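Operator note (shift B, R.M.): manual run for Alpha-ketoglutarate-dependent dioxygenase alkB-like protein 2 requested after the automated queue skipped it. Running by hand, logging everything below so the morning shift can see what happened. Input copied straight from the record, untouched. If output looks odd, do not overwrite the archive copy; leave it for review.
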Amino acid sequence: MTTGDSGGLHLCTAEQGGATAGEKSDCRTRRVIELGNGSEVIYMSRFINYDESWDYLEYLNKNIPWNRPTIRVFGRSCVQPRDSCYVASEGLPQLVYSGYQPHAYSWDEFPPLKDILTAVHKALPGSRFNSLLLNRYKGGDDYVGWHADDEKLYGPTPEIASLSFGCEREFLLKKRPDKTPRGKKTSGEQPKKRSKKDGSPDKHSFVLKHGSLLVMRGYTQRDWLHSVPKRVKADSLRINLTFRLVL
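Run finished. Output pasted below as returned.
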């Protein structure tokens, strides 16, 4: 892991190829996918240098205190189908998901994570993150089902920056079904209205490459669900870092 100008990382800044339908390019460094109605995804396929990414994969695999907890899904207890670890700044509200409250480790316990955080902040001007949920997929049977990172401690428009190391895995997005009963009226401030005819696709698929960064912004957690499904051919290790801001 070589010391450089971006928090100790060598970052790749040139993206090959042009933007496709529904996308726009930004100085050839990233793809921006407009999902419609204030939702946006940014994807950088080579955020961290390829060789250096292998160094980080090895460090994270050996030094992070991984845990595979028991969680509750649809009222039933089950073992989470991937390993995880949680890192957060001091004084933040506790994270709880699926009935599980992970221990919050300090950034100071893992200096390379602080370097990566600095690099992510530099790549996303105006963004700020103070917590990190790490996931380790040992093979194709490890996965994460359809969900949204819409916990209240992240606020109404959370930004999630997802950095991947190791085995390429498919990342899926699909629109949430609108569960508001027809004709039902609500009081108070109204959220931004979702249009069913915005012209954007209802599903998106990304192959998250080694060293890539994917960012979800705006109303993505309100209007969309995402998952990393099982894949038989994904037979090697993948580690994913998801940076978040706890309010």
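Quick read of the result: Helices lie at 50-63, 111-123, 220-223. The chain has one domain: 23-177+200-220.
Leaving this for review. - R.M.
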